[in-house]
Design brief:
Elements lengths: L3 E9 L16 H19 L5 E5 L1 H16 L5 H6 L9 H10 L5 H4 L4 H13 L4 H6 L2 H14 L3 H6 L1 H9 L5 H28 L2 E4 L8 H5 L22 H20 L5 E2 L8 H9 L4 E5 H11 L16 E3 L7 E5 L1 H10 L5 H17 L8 E7 L12 H12 L4 E4 L1 H7 L6 E3 L19 H23 L4 H14 L3 H5 L6 H21 L24 H4 L7
Parallel strand pairs: 1-2, 1-8, 1-9, 2-3, 4-5, 5-7, 6-10
Length: 571
Amino acid sequence: MQSINFVLLWHMHQPDYRNYETGEFMLPWVYLHAIKDYTDMVSHLEAHPSMKAVVNFVPVLLDQLEDYAAQFAQGRIRDPLLRLLATPDLERVSTCDRLRVFDSCFRSNHVTMMQPYPAYKHLHDMHETLRGRGEAELAYLSGQYLADLLVWYHLAWTGESVRRNNETVVQLMTQGGGFSYADRTQLLNLIGELIQGLIPRYRKLAESGQIELSTTPHYHPLAPLLIDFSSARDSMPGENLPMEAAYPGGRSRVAFHLESAIESHVGRFGIRPAGVWPAEGAVSTPFLEILAEHNCQWSASGEGVLANSLRQSYADQPLPERRRYLYRPYRIQGRADGVTCFFRDEKLSDMIGFEYAKWFGRDAAEHLVHSLEDIGRNAPPGENPVVSVILDGENAWEYYPYNGYYFLNDLYEILEHHASIRCTTYRDYIASMEHNEAVVLPVLAAGSWVYGTFSTWIGDRDKNHAWDLLCAAKHSYDLVVQSGRLTDEEKAKAERQLASCESSDWFWWLGDYNPPYVVSSFDQLFRDNLANLYCLLKLPVPVTVLEPINQGSENLDSGRPESGGTMRRAS
């Protein structure tokens, strides 16, 4: 069997949940994923020191992790749910805070994160009995109930590596209920310790050479669309577009996000990132040219983008078998030639994201390894295949038993000792690559890792309306900044707020294929960001910004990864 190079890239991202006007975190997903997924993922790598991988951190996620670490260090918590966990007397909390606990503390996959814990499920059953009864729901569920619910929610969101090794978690899970303020304080302190230790742990692995840390433009913008809305028509020629012909000054905004990301990476990890995983794997030739101008060595995208590009590059030829084009490095003709491009194996990536959660961990790990072996066996003679598996590093594990512990442990163990699968990183692969080994791609069809298109972010009425709102805000921003009415400090605050408004996540969540409670949260967050931007510009907030954009759909199966909305299949 021919040996292969295998690059596993875990993409770590959460959008900015902070309200810059109040300083409050509006949603808890950064710290919850920190204590569950980012903690488990680094623990698995530490336990398997011969396993190599690429870990991609979006700077806005690191900003928020550092913000939480500072909150714990200063003893001033600005996350409402964490603040409730730390509240001494829960009998005296406001009606709004009681409802917040009820609304927040059942948000998880109940099959894997509630049903295994009878005490937690009992709390849920009690709430369901009283739900919708108005005053009864508030009156009958005591402060002790709130304490138990808050503790169990955070225990359910604790990583498997922590559960197996931390005495506080073992003691609280064994206790089961009747949690005191001292118990809650212990749990709160543990959460702080886990968050404060995360970035140093990943940095240590990077310094040892075990992992490569890569980055994404700072606030996770959909770069090709910021540069040119019409790039959406590369893969969907008839796509409807926003009223504006282009996002104002989009190319310079993408350069700003990239430069800020590089600066952030150097400051945190002491080294310039070799490569960039673009937000949503979204690429276009103008975007790769910006990467080349900033001396980025590599980028990556989805298999669908490569297939569309080959069809456009060689329109008179049928697309060959995927094994004959997918497992190679590419370079794009022209000014982007200095960036080596890789394209992920959609089937294997989606198996981890959507299918292996239903398998026994060992079976899933062996199936993935056998699939890699088959790629080696079927490689064209003389080829040196490089296989890319790229997916979210946090969102799949909620659907796995034990947060994916057995799958990841067994997979890393097998790969560490495999004779013909060489786990590597893109930086190391490029360093060992012959210069002429990359295949020249005449045309790059703009697209993303979802369907090979931009349909998740643009095209339907509500998504286009959101872009129109953002374009209008950017025009106002440009006019006010050019007028010189803002001080340097005011200008910096407005630019940071604008950058948050440019995140791809707001457009991702608009759509009838997402659950309504999530859609409403992100719809509100997007419009709050726009409203804050207008306030920072000292302008009245337009009425259109105050009106909801989208409602989502009720008809979704919450037990399926696709229905949670955080992940999309590639095709």
